[in-house]
């Protein structure tokens, strides 16, 4: 049986063999109980599109959501679709797609992706572009320019664009050129005026130049011309003596997932660098073309790129709307979200003399829970590490780094600490997808400064967000710990919603010390007191906590489960939630992206409610809350409920114990799951329905705006005191 005193201690000493979850289950669950993972991800991206369609959103933010959609879909093809194609080739089944072949899944994905990309293009052409024009930001065409404007742009073309263009001909002496992934290109058909022979040429639109070229700026507004339009209308300069017959834009997506057999390589960094070179030449998986491309050009591209008709996406121009990110630089604050200024967490605010806070003294008083970006990363996490680097009483710093930047103050703090003679350990995850090359660069920078850099365990990604500072105080070594839900990245901390816990708790310090020792050693085998750690114990721990809620409901005790994650697809976790729901446990799931769970199914999940919230900030924190017969237990950490997180990554959750912190997290859930809050509701058929206004047409509560106001109120209340 499950021992309550063991659970109260955080499941740290429970015997894995003393309880078989399956013995508690007396009924079979229906086979068709999971939503398709890939289609659920596309449904998430549809929610992003709905924000771009929303007329109540500021127009430049709507343009930004179109860019986010494009970026998301690119990654989806480069990784998820590429993975499905690899499974087709190797004959592997797809997890959570019971009874469906990879070919069937790929066909469904292709159909839905085509629909969404057409909707994406339509929103730009018929909603966002006219909305920008109404606000004085015009995205114009060459045909709409005046003669003077064309002359000005031609001079810009000659001096700033023409020198970096590289037209590549295709003829017997010039084979079809390599097309890099995600590059925007022009396919050009030309005729030799002397011989009459038709030729083909490819021209890459330079990615280092501004995507939108300023045409004119007046009191009424500003106008821009897409760079590819400027190039297209001056092709004669690139092909003197030739007649330009036709030109069309196209864009190729390649398989850019990285696969390394770590147990077969002696040097992970060298193997990764070699794999990154191979990534550039991954097989094509999607070809986007403008819908006016002629058949001759399209047939040539399909043939030369060895791509199928299903993988061709005909779209109204312009292609690659990620370029809309550039519009965020337009100085029109009236067309963006009102500024939210992060506050310094109450515990870390300066004293009466406006002196800089003593982070260590503040943490010694009590655990500190910070909520980014509402509370500042710079005056909490960053300051914690900067003070540790300078403090003569600090002997050692240990930290995991998954995604950050080489110029990050976090990296600099570790370098400063090492140069000051402190012991510094940085566990760098060089396999963080699409950040591999950057991570290698700054990992070597750390090594040169004297930081002990390790790259984690073979076969596992280190995804947990941990920092440990060892400080000597009165001849005693004290451990200051930080466990977060987000990366140690000052840039993303401004737009990613995350929590972090600072504590001087001795048990947490011992847990982290052991965990870091195991991470820099060979294996993660032991259990911990206040941590749940993957890959061995996190899933088991959560299943036991879910099962306890189910048993409490059976016994007529108070029960309830609340989970906030980016994605939930793990079958064991989902099945445990189904079984809890069947016994009457209220289950609330707050998910940003993929959800494989079907809520509201009679006899299975009628007690499960699923909500999703998207907005100006990316909901990124992971929270797991259990009612526990009125003695709530809440964990925060880095893990989503996915196979990769629970089986193939080192993840860590920490139990939050301070009553005020437990209340803050429970209050967040209460607002997020309320019918009075703007959100998307998931139905049993997998359809997401947006709820934005009440029955009287009044806007529902915006969770993120409300949270920011609450943080500012707390600060003002302290100032008054």
TrEMBL record:
Mg(2+) binds at residues 403, 433. Signal peptide: none annotated. Keywords: ATP-binding, Kinase, Magnesium, Metal-binding, Nucleotide-binding, Phosphoprotein, Transferase. One of its GO terms (molecular function) is polyphosphate kinase activity. CDD domains: PLDc_PaPPK1_C1_like (cd09165), PLDc_PaPPK1_C2_like (cd09168). Residues 615-645 form the PLD phosphodiesterase domain. It catalyses: [phosphate](n) + ATP = [phosphate](n+1) + ADP. ATP binds at residues 72, 496, 592, 620. The active site is at residue 463. Its EC number is 2.7.4.1. An intermediate of this reaction is the autophosphorylated ppk in which a phosphate is covalently linked to a histidine residue through a N-P bond. Catalyzes the reversible transfer of the terminal phosphate of ATP to form a long-chain polyphosphate (polyP). Belongs to the polyphosphate kinase 1 (PPK1) family. HAMAP family: Polyphosphate_kinase. This is Polyphosphate kinase. The gene is ppk.
């Amino acid at each position: 049986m499950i021992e309550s005193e063991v659970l109260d201690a955080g499941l740290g000493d429970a015997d894995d063999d003393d309880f078989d979850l399956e013995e508690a289950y007396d009924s079979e669950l229906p086979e068709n109980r999971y939503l398709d993972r890939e289609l659920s991800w596309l449904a998430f991206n549809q929610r992003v599109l709905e924000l771009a369609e929303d007329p109540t959103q500021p127009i430049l933010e709507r343009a930004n959501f179109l860019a986010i959609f494009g970026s998301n879909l690119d990654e989806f093809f480069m990784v998820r679709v590429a993975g499905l194609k690899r499974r087709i080739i190797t004959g592997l089944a797809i997890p959570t797609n019971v009874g469906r072949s990879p070919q069937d899944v790929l066909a469904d994905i292709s159909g839905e992706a085509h629909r969404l990309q057409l909707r994406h293009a339509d929103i730009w052409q018929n909603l966002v572009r006219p909305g920008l024009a109404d606000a004085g930001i015009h995205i114009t065409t060459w045909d709409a320019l005046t003669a003077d404007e064309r002359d000005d742009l031609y001079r810009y073309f000659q001096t700033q664009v023409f020198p970096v263009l590289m037209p590549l001909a295709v003829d017997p002496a010039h084979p079809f050129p390599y097309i890099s992934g995600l590059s925007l290109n022009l396919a050009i058909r030309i005729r030799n005026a002397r011989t009459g022979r038709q030729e083909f040429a490819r021209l890459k639109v330079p990615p280092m130049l501004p995507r939108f070229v300023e045409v004119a700026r007046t009191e009424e507004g500003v106008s821009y011309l897409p760079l590819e339009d400027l190039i297209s209308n001056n092709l004669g300069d690139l092909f003197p003596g030739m007649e330009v017959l036709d030109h069309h834009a196209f864009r190729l997506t390649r398989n850019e997932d990285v696969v390394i057999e770590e147990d077969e390589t002696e040097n992970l960094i060298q193997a990764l660098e070699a794999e990154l070179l191979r990534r550039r030449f991954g097989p094509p998986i999607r070809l986007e073309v403008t819908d006016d491309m002629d058949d001759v050009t399209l047939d040539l591209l399909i043939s030369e790129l060895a791509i199928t008709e299903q993988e061709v996406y005909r779209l109204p121009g312009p292609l690659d709307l990620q370029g809309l990110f550039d519009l965020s630089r337009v100085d029109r604050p009236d067309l963006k979200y009102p500024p939210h200024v992060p506050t310094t967490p109450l515990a870390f605010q300066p004293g009466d003399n406006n002196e800089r806070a003593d982070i260590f003294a503040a943490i010694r008083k009590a655990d500190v829970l910070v909520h980014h970006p509402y509370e500042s990363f710079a005056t909490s996490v960053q300051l914690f590490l900067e003070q540790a680097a300078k403090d003569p009483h600090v002997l050692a710093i240990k930290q995991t780094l998954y995604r950050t930047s080489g110029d990050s103050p976090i990296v600099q703090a570790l370098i400063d600490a090492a140069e000051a003679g402190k012991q510094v350990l940085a566990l760098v995850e060089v396999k963080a997808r699409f950040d591999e090359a950057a991570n290698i660069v700054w990992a070597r920078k750390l090594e040169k400064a004297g930081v002990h850099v390790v790259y984690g365990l073979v076969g596992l990604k280190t995804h947990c967000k941990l920092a440990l500072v060892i400080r000597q105080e009165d001849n005693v070594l004290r451990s200051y710990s930080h466990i977060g839900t987000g990366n140690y990245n000052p840039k993303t901390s401004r737009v990613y919603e995350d929590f972090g816990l600072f504590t001087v708790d001795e048990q947490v310090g011992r847990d982290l010390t052991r965990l870091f020792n195991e991470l820099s050693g060979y294996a993660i085998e032991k259990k911990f007191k206040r941590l749940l750690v993957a890959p061995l114990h996190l899933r088991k721990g959560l299943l036991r906590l879910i099962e306890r809620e189910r048993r409490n409901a059976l016994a007529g005790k108070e029960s309830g489960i609340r989970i906030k994650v980016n994605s939930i697809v793990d079958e064991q976790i989902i099945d445990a939630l189904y079984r809890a729901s069947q016994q009457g446990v209220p289950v609330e799931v707050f998910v940003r992206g993929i959800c494989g769970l079907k809520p509201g199914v009679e006899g299975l999940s009628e007690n499960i409610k699923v909500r999703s919230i998207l907005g100006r900030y990316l909901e990124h924190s992971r929270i797991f809350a259990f009612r526990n017969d009125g003695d709530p237990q809440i964990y925060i950490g880095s893990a989503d409920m996915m196979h990769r997180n629970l089986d193939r990554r080192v993840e860590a959750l920490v139990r939050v114990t301070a009553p005020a912190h437990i209340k803050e997290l429970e209050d967040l859930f209460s607002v997020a799951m309320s019918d009075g809050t703007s959100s998307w509701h998931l139905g049993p058929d997998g359809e997401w329905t947006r709820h934005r206004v009440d029955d009287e047409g009044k806007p529902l509560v915006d969770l993120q705006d409300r949270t920011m106001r609450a943080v500012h109120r707390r600060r003002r209340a302290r100032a008054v005191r």
